[in-house]
Known about the structure:
Oligomer: single chain
Bound molecules: zinc ion
Number of helices: 14
CATH superfamily of the largest domain: P-loop containing nucleotide triphosphate hydrolases
Number of domains: 2
Helix content: 55-70%
Largest sheet: 5 strands, parallel
Distance between the termini: 62 Å
Number of strands: 5
CATH topology of the largest domain: Rossmann fold
Strand order of the largest sheet: 2-3-4-1-5
Strand content: 5-15%
Amino acid sequence: MFKKILGQKKVKRIISTQIKSGKIAQVYMFIGIDGIGKRLTAIEFAKVMNCSVNDFTKTDVGVCEKCISCEKITKNIHPDIHFIDFTKQAELEKSDLEKQKILKIETIRYMQKKILTRMYEGKWKFFIIEPAEKMNIAASNSLLKTLEEPPENTIIILIARHKETIPQTISSRSQIMFFQPLGVSEISNWLISNYSIHSTEVQRIVSLSDGSIGNAKKLADENKNKKDELSLWFRFKAQSFYISDILELSKNIVMKSTTLECVNAMICEAKKDFKVYPKTIAPAVELLIASKRLLLRNVNAQTVLDNLFFNLLDLVSYFKYKNT
Ligand SMILES: [Zn+2]
């Protein structure tokens, strides 16, 4: 059970034992720093309780991941599993996600309405409230009534960073589970199996990640982007692109919003080559600098990058001709 969750042995052991013995608490509070598996554990918990293939009260096998229930929970479309969070609130308010700073009473009321509706497909309804510390007083007070007497076959999980930020009236009604930062080997192994990454870089990221997979992922992605940016000029020079790749490549860069960083990295590398082959490289450097100017003037990044890459492709075929 809970094979997807890294670390957190104690939490996994307690919840597994409760499931098998049928002594499940109805209100939990998952406490711990970001990026260590609190939300994922809540999702896996919901899967375990609703899987239509495996009976977890009798065996210790993992969730089947194949039944309709498991699939729907993975895709976040299960009608009985509810996330009460900023994404939901933004959807209810029809406003931007970035504007959501506190969880409001209206969102808790939405949850209370949902909690009373009949079960659609599952065996257990789940309500996952995150970040629970962002509920304002009105929302907390309103939630309190629900926590005092949750309906049958309903599990409420509050997710927060610190226990102290939650009103005592709420935490005293919850079974509190403390999630621990992950160990060096857990994070290193995760990095190695998810990224092609040098061992010195693994060490650097692990030391900066504070035991959080979320932080490690962010740092590893930044690292990968940087590597991709630096390799662009070399890939053009080696003519490792086909015309069909170019549009895909520029689309990806624009989507990651690293257009200017990429052009800067290419300028930097092209200038090094310019010192050795000034005549051959000069047109490419000029083209790159002109593109950078357009970006700084806020010309559409996609258009600038598409033009730059197509023109560069023409120029590099000329490099080959000159060099041979
Ligand atoms: Zn299943």
